[in-house]
Amino acid sequence: MTISMYQASVPVFIRMLNNLIGILEKAAADAEARKIDPAVLINSRLYPDMFPLSRQVRIAVDAAAGGAARLAGMEPPTNENNETTFPELIERIRKTIAYLNTFKPGQIDGSEKRAVTLKVRDDTLTLDGLTFLLNRVLPNFYFHITTTYGILRHNGLEIGKKDYLGKF
Question: What sign does the dihedral 41-47-48-49 (CA atoms) show?
């Protein structure tokens, strides 16, 4: 049995982004029920030197969109990064899911050896597609979704592994 680069990327991104929407919707409802200003959660961090929830979501979304685009040999889309509410963050995720749904397997399959070059801070990194997906995109994507989950759980949102993994 083999798995394609498309199967290992786009459907995985879409599934987890849909799960992230569910978590953020629960957070918005919980904030309203507990009379917590949603901005408190959106600006929360696990530690002072970490990014706030809003940036965690943006990075996860950008990892998915940028990962798919680069594997397809395209330039990733850009965003303004100005979301400050749960509905705005959810809308950004929905737009990314719509973007990911435009990819066809033929655009990404066979990209294992395609050179992917990206700017990382003050450096330029070039990896083959398989290394890029398995060692850069997926770990980064999951890290920022997990950190979003952790921030919300730390702030009392009653979510669990079922919310993170979603339904099968």
Answer: negative
How many folded domains does the chain comprise? 1
**Identity (one letter) of the amino acid at 135?**
N
At 9-32, the pLDDT tens digits run 999 999 999 999 999 999 999 999
Question: What is the percent of the chain where pLDDT is above 90?
Answer: 94
The C-alpha atoms of residue 91 and residue 12 are separated, in whole angstroms, by 19
For residue 3, tell me if it sits in a domain. Answer: no
Residue 16 lies in a domain: yes
CA 167 to chain CA centroid, nearest Å: 18
Q: What is the CATH number of the domain that holds 111?
A: 1.20.120.450
pTM over 0.85: yes
Three-state SS for 101-144 is CCCCHHHHCCHHHCEEEEEECCEEEEEEHHHHHHHHHHHHHHHH
Contact assessment for residue 112 and residue 5, using Cβ atoms and an 8 Å cutoff: yes
Nearest alpha-carbon partner for 16 in 53, 65, 77 = 65
